[in-house]
Amino acid sequence: MNDTELSMRPGTSVLPSIQAMRGVAALAVLVHHLGQYAGLRFSAGWLLPGSGLLWSGVDIFFVLSGFLMAWSSFGKSNAERSSVAFLTGRAGRIYPPYWAALALTVMIAVALPQAMPKETVCPALCQISLMPYDGSPLLGPAWTLSYEVIFYLIFAALLMFPGKTRLFGLGVWTMIVLVSGLFFPPSNRASIIHLALAPLPLEFLMGCWIAVALQKGQRFTSLFAAMFALFLMLMGAAYFNSVSPGLRGSAAEWARVALVGLPAVGLVFTLASMDLTKAIQPPHIFQWLGDRSYSLYLIHWPIVVGLSWIVHESLSGAAVPAMTFVICGFGASLAISAVMYRYVESPSHLFAKAISRRIYNLAERS
């Protein structure tokens, strides 16, 4: 959901299709939740046909996160400084926008407690830190950030190793997750062990391997292949929706990785290849969305939840309030995410980047 600087080589120009894909993925998750709450509040899920498949935007984010982390970090030479700078930059990027969205969610929960999902909420420390705990996060999408935080911690440890040793470490990490997921499925979903070794982290790891392949010169530039990967991903999401209620334990996560994660890997690899060969230039609006994708991903959820209850209680009938909710929810999410990006995410990004660079250069100055 978040990224370091998108680059053709670490530290240089932007990968426009990858940036655009982030925006499309965030938009997909927004439409998914609009369709979900149109159905829950108004029995009008039909207003957004296909929105029940768009949770797959999360899987795109997972693959992108792994890709971007490896693409931007594996070229750094100093292992120890690279690791510390990486964690500092990640913390500065993830937490300030998350805390802003969490604060809005808390205000809505206090003002409109009836609007919030009736679930057991994990303690305040869990909410603030994104560490796993029994119970649901108050901010719906935060469960995905918990996976990201654990991934970043392990990835930072990987960066402690120099050069080619990192690739060996990445291979060992991938094998551990594969073996653990197949033979020793974690029983407690609210544990760090689960977030580190469950099947879903394979999507991050596959993203890392995309970066490795591209840095070694591998390319696959086919717009048809990218569209076919997207089609397979949506069909996989549809099939997953039909079979997941009957799956137990880690089987559901394995099915999700196979049906949705693998096509997402193909999509990311193909579009990144096309960026590197300058074979495609996506519309500017999608790159604009990509810049604001993290803010949109976070802030849309309290807006959708709160607005759905307000519209439901304020308007009568069926189709009119549902349509009002969808239009207002879509517009408000885009508008408020732009404000959040301008005043929270962008400043925190610049600050984190400056601190990270200072840490990385500290040894050279001494």
Automatic annotation (TrEMBL):
Q: Name the keywords, alphabetized.
A: Acyltransferase, Membrane, Plasmid, Transferase, Transmembrane, Transmembrane helix
Which Gene Ontology terms cover its molecular function? acyltransferase activity, transferring groups other than amino-acyl groups
Concerning InterPro entries, the annotation shows:
Acyl_transf_3_dom (IPR002656), Acyltransferase_3 (IPR050879)
One of the GO biological process terms? polysaccharide biosynthetic process
- Protein origin, superkingdom: Bacteria
An annotated GO cellular component of this protein is:
membrane
Q: Which residues cross the membrane?
A: 52-74, 95-115, 140-160, 167-186, 192-214, 221-242, 254-273, 294-312, 318-341
- Chain ranges of the Acyltransferase domain: 17-342
**Name by which UniProt lists this protein:** Acyltransferase 3
Q: Which organism is it from?
A: Asticcacaulis excentricus (strain ATCC 15261 / DSM 4724 / KCTC 12464 / NCIMB 9791 / VKM B-1370 / CB 48)
